[in-house]
Amino acid sequence: MKASDKLSASEVRRVNRNRVYMYLYEQETPKTKRDIEQSLEISMPTVTQNLKELLEQGLISYVGTEESTGGRKARQIAVDPAARFAVGIELSPKHIRYVAVDLRAREIAFTEVEQQFQDNALYYKYLAQELERFLDAYDLKRSQLLGIGITVPGIVDKDQSVVTVSPVLAVRKLNIRQITERIPYPCFVQNDASAGGVAEGWMHYMQDNMAYLYLGKGVGGALLLEGKPYMGKNGRSAEFGHTCVHPGGALCHCGKRGCLEAYCSTARLTDDLGKSTEEFFQGLQDGEDELIRVWNRYLDYLALGIYNIRMNFDCDVMLGGRISPFLADYLPDLRMRLQKLNAFENNAAYLHIGACGSKANCIGVALHFIKQFIEQV
Ligand SMILES: [Zn+2]
Question: The whole model's pTM is what?
Answer without folding.
Answer: 0.86
